[in-house]
Design goal:
Layout lengths: L1 E9 L6 E9 L6 E6 L10 H8 L3 E6 L22 H19 L5 E6 L1 H12 L6 E5 L6 H18 L6 H8 L20 H9 L9 H14 L2 H4 L8 E6 L9 H12 L5 E6 L12 H15 L1
Parallel strand pairs: 3-4, 3-5, 5-6, 6-7, 7-8
Antiparallel strand pairs: 1-2, 2-4
Helix pairs in contact: 2-3, 3-7, 4-5, 4-7
């Protein structure tokens, strides 16, 4: 059983309200808190099945909608847009504000961060900017892009922003960012086959009006700035070396270069001296491993890892 609640708090952008979903265990001892950072073009409540599973094991689960996503929409701006300036950093600061608010309510409880996809990149940014605030972090569906790829993306994004504006959609930029993901699964049934081998999950994603929106050039550029920040070894070295980190991904996830990018990120954390590192790649699974048909194994692995550190 869980108490399900929703609320809003002011974003660090000074004008937007950030929407939060929270699941709190009923009738059992609270063993810890898990904060979820969702991916691009989705929202926090998509993680409700996973949240209820963790809640049933004594974990409070909280998940905010990032700026420009779900119910945290910026007035006068399109969806999948982080704002006119410093959007990436506002999102990370909002994540830290949610952590502070939740940690005050559940003082003394171990506090974990779970980031998926773009949320994993945001989580990695948080680990660098706010070291020493967490009991552990799970990075799901992450990757590690080269400096050359990021620089090329920034060049194209800059040109397209000059041509169309930051809050516009660019077919060229979209193809660069996401177009190649489906190639490994040709002939593709949909443009989102890469997210999951579970066709029901793909169809639900496509049917959801809060998922799969056109990624704006502004968000594309903001994400590239974030990727540039989190892939610099000098920044990674600033993380808390005692923080336990668990990398999980499908070995057919193109965001993580079919596992190779996940291992690169893991190796960078290891080089930084992070002491408690684990990695697991799931055979045959794609990007949304929490929503695959065999997700019960992923759920259990995450739970076991959390319990061992709570």
């Amino acid at each position: 059983m869980a108490i399900v609640s929703e609320y809003f708090f002011p974003s660090s952008d000074g004008k937007t309200l950030i929407h939060v979903n929270q699941w709190t265990p009923v009738g059992r001892e609270i063993v810890g808190v898990v904060q979820i950072a969702h991916g691009v073009a989705e929202y926090g409540k998509r993680y409700e099945p996973f949240a209820r599973f963790l809640c049933g094991q004594g974990f409070v689960v909280t998940a905010n909608d990032h700026l420009g996503h779900g119910q945290s929409l910026i007035e006068g701006a399109p969806m999948v847009y982080l704002g006119e300036k410093d959007g990436w950093w506002h999102v990370v600061d909002d994540m830290e504000e949610l952590r502070r608010r939740t940690a005050r309510v559940f003082a003394g409880k171990p506090y974990f961060l779970f980031g998926h996809s773009m949320g994993s990149f945001l989580a990695r940014t948080h680990l660098i900017r706010y070291p020493g605030r967490l009991s552990g972090c799970v990075l799901c569906g992450t990757g590690h892009q080269s400096a050359a790829i990021i620089a090329g993306g920034k060049l194209i994004a800059g040109r397209e922003i000059k041509r169309l504006g930051k809050n516009a959609f660019s077919v060229k930029a979209d193809q660069l960012a996401f177009g190649a993901y489906n190639k490994a699964f040709a002939p593709a049934r949909t443009k989102f086959d890469w997210i999951s081998a579970n066709e029901a999950n793909v169809d639900a994603y496509i049917a959801d009006p809060l998922c799969g929106g056109d990624t704006t050039l502004g968000l594309f550029r903001d994400m590239l700035d974030g990727l540039s920040y989190i892939t610099k070894q000098s920044n990674i070295n600033q993380m808390d070396k005692d923080l336990p980190v668990f990398f999980i991904a499908g070995d057919q996830d193109p965001v993580g270069d079919m596992g190779k990018g996940v291992r690169k990120a893991y190796d960078c954390f290891k080089k930084a001296g992070v002491k408690d590192l684990n990695i697991k790649l799931y055979h045959g699974l794609r990007h949304e491993i929490l929503n695959e048909k065999s997700n019960q194994y992923v759920y259990q692995d995450v739970l076991d890892w959390l319990k061992a550190r709570a």
